[in-house]
Amino acid sequence: MIANVIFPAFLSPHVGSIFFPPAILAALFVEALIYSRFRATPNGRVVVPMLLANLASWVVGAAIAFLLPSGLVPQAVNNGAATIVTSGPDFEMFMYLSFPVACVISVVVEYLVLRPMKKRMQIERIGPAVIVANIASYCVLFGVLLVFIHGIR
Question: Computed over its alpha carbons, how large is the radius of gyration of the chain?
Answer without folding.
Answer: 18
